[in-house]
Design goal:
- With 90 residues, the chain is of the alpha+beta class.
- The protein has one domain: Alpha-Beta Plaits, CATH 3.30.70.
- Helix content is 29%, strand content 29%.
- The protein has two helices and four strands; from the N terminus they run E-H-E-E-H-E.
- Strands 2-3-1-4 form a four-stranded antiparallel sheet, covered by helices on one side.
- Helix 1 packs across helix 2.
- The longest helix is centred in the N-terminal third of the chain and has 15 residues.
- The chain is globular and about 45 Å long.
C-alpha cells in the first residue's frame, strides 16, 4: 500500500492532549480512517503545535481526503513518500 506524508496547519494549535478526551479523539480518527482503508502511522508536530506532518498508509490520496473530511481535519498537502534509509549503503 502506498505511504503518504500529509501536511496540516492548525492556526490555533493542535488540541490533542494526552488525556482521556485526547485518547477518544484519536480512537475516533482511527475508526473513521479505517472506513476509507486509511491507516495513521504516526505524526510529527511542531513546537508551537500549529503544523503537523503525518505519515499515513492509504490506497489513494482521495481516500486520505475523505477520511480527513470525516474527521474535520485540514489537509494542506499530500505527498507520496518512500523510506530512504541512510544505512542502506553501509
Amino acid at each position: 500500500m502506498p505511504r503518504y506524508l500529509i501536511e496540516r496547519h492548525f492556526p490555533d494549535g493542535l488540541g490533542l492532549a494526552p488525556d482521556q478526551p485526547g485518547r477518544q479523539t484519536a480512537a475516533t480518527v482511527i475508526a473513521n480512517n479505517a472506513q476509507h482503508g486509511v491507516t495513521w502511522v504516526h505524526s510529527y508536530v511542531t513546537a508551537d503545535k500549529k503544523q503537523t506532518f503525518c505519515i499515513y498508509d492509504a490506497p489513494t490520496p482521495e481516500a486520505i481526503r475523505k477520511a480527513a473530511d470525516r474527521n474535520g481535519l485540514p489537509v494542506e498537502r499530500i505527498t507520496e513518500v518512500r523510506v530512504l534509509d541512510p544505512y542502506f549503503h553501509l
